[in-house]
Amino acid sequence: MYKSIIAIFVLCFSQNILAQKQVDTSRPNIIFIFADDMGIGDVSHTTGKAATPHLDRLAEEGIRFTDAHTSSSVCTPSRYSLLTGRYNWRTSLSKGVIHKPTTKPLLKKEETTVASLLKQAGYHTAIIGKWHLGIEWELLPDFKKEKWQIGGGWNIDYTKPAVTPTSNGFDYYFGIAASLDMPPYVYIENEKVTEIPSVMKDPNIRGRKGPAGPSFKADHCLQDFAEKSVTYINERANEKEPFFLYLPLSSPHTPIVPSEKWRGKSPLGDYGDFLMETDWVVGEVLKALDKQGLTENTIVLFSTDNGCSPAAKIPALQKKGHSPSGNLRGNKADIYEGGHRVPLIVRWPEVINTGTQTDRLTCLTDFIATCSEITDIKLEGTSGVDAVSFLSTLKDPTITNREAIVHHSINGSFAIRQGNWKLALCPGSGGWSTPRAGQTPEGSPNVQLFDLANDIAETTNLQDKYPEKVEELTQLLQSYVDKGRSTPGEIQKNDRDINIYSEDIAN
Fold this sequence. Notes:
Elements: H1 2-21, E1 29-35, H2 53-61, E2 63-65, E3 68-69, H3 75-84, H4 114-120, E4 124-130, E5 172-176, E6 188-189, E7 192-193, E8 199-200, E9 211-212, H5 221-236, E10 243-248, H6 270-292, E11 298-304, H7 314-319, H8 337-340, E12 341-342, E13 344-347, E14 356-358, E15 362-363, H9 366-375, H10 391-395, E16 405-408, E17 414-418, E18 421-424, E19 448-451, H11 467-483, H12 503-506
Parallel strand pairs: 1-10, 1-11, 2-14, 3-15, 4-5, 4-10
Antiparallel strand pairs: 2-13, 3-12, 5-6, 6-7, 8-9, 11-13, 16-17, 17-18, 18-19
InterPro entries: Alkaline_phosphatase_core_sf, Sulfatase, Sulfatase_CS, Sulfatase_N
Family: Belongs to the sulfatase family.
Keywords: Calcium, Hydrolase, Metal-binding, Signal
C-alpha cells in the first residue's frame, strides 16, 4: 500500500514538473534579423567562402527555405513588404528606393505591420537597426547652406521629432534612417536624434556627402546594433510579456566597412570580412538567448532584403571561388533570381525539426501571416493581402501551400512565378545586370519565360515555345493587380494605377 502511495506521489510530482517545463508556443518570442545586400551564396553552408558559423548553426538547428524571395530586388520596397505582407508595387513607390530624409513615410500611420499585429497579442516590440521607409523630418525655416555644408540633409530641424517606426507599432526604436551611404549619419532613438548632425561625414568612407553626428562612426554600427540587441533581450527576459525584435542590419551594404576587429579575417577582402562581422551579430543574439534561457521558445529568422550588390566587386570575388548569387543569374536590382532569391533560415526548437529544409515557394510577405497564425490574431481583410502563412511548413517541410509570387525590380519591371515557371514582363534584367533596360539586342522579345526546374540560371527564353503559358501567367499577374490582393478576400485598392509592363517597354 505504501509503495502504491509513493508511486502515485512520484507520478503526480513528475507530471507537475513536466507541466512546469511545457512552453506556451502560442506566444513565442520572435526575432527577425535582416541583412542588407547579401546574396544566397554568401553564407558558408551553401557556397560561401567567408566563414558564417552562427548562420550555419541556425541552419543546423532549424529549417532552410531554399526558394525564398523578397518582394523586390532593392531595399525600401522589400522592407515595406516584409512588415506589411503587401506587395511594394501596390504603393506610391513605383520603382527605386527612398533617398531623401524628408520623404513622407511609405507606411501609412493606420497601416497594419507585423509589430502592430503582435502588440494585439501582448507583445513588446522593438526595432534596432536600419529603417529606410521614410522619416519625414521637418525643415528649418529660411535655411541657407554654408559653403562647407556639402550634400543633402543640412536643412533639417534635428531638434524636432521625426516620423519613425514608433508610428507603426514599435514600442522602441534605435537605429539609422536609411543606408550607411545616405545622409544624415546619426543614430535616432525613438523619435529624436541622439546628437545633432553638425559635421561632415568621414571623407574616407564611401557614400553620399552630408551631415553626421560628431561621434557617429559607420564601422561601429554593427557593434552598436549588437550591443543594443543584447541589452534589449536581457531586459525583456525579466518580463512576462513576449517580445518581437526586428533587427535590420546595415551590412554588407555599402560602405563596406568592417570594424578593425574583423579586418583581414576572411580570404575575400573587406566584403568577406563584413560578412563575417554580420554573422557575428547573429552569434551575439543567439548567445544572449542561450544565456537567458530563451532559446527553446524563441523564433529566430534570418534573411536579407535583396541579392548582393555589384559594389561588392562580384567578378573579383568569383575569381576567389566565392559567388554571392550562387548559381543564379543577376544580382541586386535585377528581375533575375540573383536579385531577389535570398537566404531564409528559421529556428524554433519547440516546433521545428533540426537540420531540415524546404523548397516551398516563399515570399517574405508571408511573415505577417505566419505571425498571425501563430498568435491567433486575425488579420483584417485590408491587411496582409499578399501573405500566406508558412507555419504549416515549419512543422512539416513537405507542405508547399503557395500558388505563386510576384517579383519586382529596381526599374519597376514585373515577373511572376508559379511552380517551376517564371515569366518576366521585360526584355532584360530590369536592373543593373546585362542586358539593362534600353540595351537589349534589337528584336529581343518583350517578355522572358524560364523553366527554373531545368534552367535555374535563366539562360533560355521559352516564350516562343509556350505562348499559352505566357498568356496564363500574364492573366494571373493582372488578376493580382486588379483585385488589389493575391490572396482570397475582399477586393482592395492599390495606391496607384499599375501597368504590369515596365515603362521602358511601354515607351
